[in-house]
Write a structure and sequence with these properties.
2 helices; about 110 residues
Length: about 110
């Protein structure tokens, strides 16, 4: 009986969630936030040791290549300039230099 009551309670919540008419952009905002959080975590885990300016591969900064993907499954790109690391995701459309690109810079 308790299981039946829990199911009856959960069904209306599920119906509200599914039937709420989520707009297409809602999921993109969530994936953008996931990618931003992942980029911050990757920077926190990275090796900021001496390496040349320019594009940097994940292994060069102590990261696993397979962990360096955005929420859309595309590679995250690292570019070092002095004491600044610029980290870029191509966003939902996967195209360079568009409005949905996620670019974060970190300095140390």
């Amino acid at each position: 009986m308790k299981m039946f009551a829990r199911t009856l309670f959960a069904l209306p919540l599920f119906a509200v969630f599914v039937g709420c008419g989520m707009e297409a952009g809602t999921m993109e905002v969530n994936l953008e936030n996931v990618t931003k959080a992942k980029i911050r975590a990757l920077f926190d885990q990275s090796n900021r040791g001496p390496f040349a300016d320019g594009p940097v591969g994940a292994p060069e900064i102590g990261l696993n290549e397979t962990d360096c993907q955005d929420a859309w499954g595309r590679p995250i790109v690292f570019l070092k300039q002095g004491n600044v690391l610029r980290v870029t995701s191509l966003g939902a459309d996967g195209v360079t230099a568009t409005q949905d690109d996620i670019i974060m810079t970190f300095s140390w």
